[in-house]
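Example 3.2
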Amino acid sequence: MKNDISKKAGELSKNLAKKEPKILKEFKEFINKGSVVDLAVGIIVGGAFTSIVTSLVNDVIMPVISMIIGGFDFTNLKITIPAYVPGIEPATINYGNFIQAVINFLIIGFVIFLIVRFLNNAKKAAIPAPVEDKKAEKAAKEAQESADDQTALLKEIRDLLKAQSKPSKK
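Structure, written as tokens:
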């Protein structure tokens, strides 16, 4: 009886595996693709990188810029809109924070540009110029020259045969 129950349980699990919904199969295939994992890793690393760059901007670069322009702090720039209803605080438009965000964006973009540029240059330096391509170019050039010579020779032969096939005027 125990054998019977285990057989039926095995058959049931096989049947359930066969009846797996198509969408679940597609989802498994999608998740198992390398690009999804790469994207997840990129997002995680990007989040960590953002905090590093934000610290660089706020703690290193902006104090230097502030010192250069005379200790001016962008984050304090704002326009105050007076309240017309008593008891309500006036509204402020904090455009200094916006300027700070734009500067952060430009610096982050520049840093990412430098990193990508560095990685691309490193890849180029790591990959030697293919010798086969130079050999292939030379062989192709020689083949073209040979074909040109053969074409000229064939034209010469054609012209001679035409000249011989014409009746002489004697």
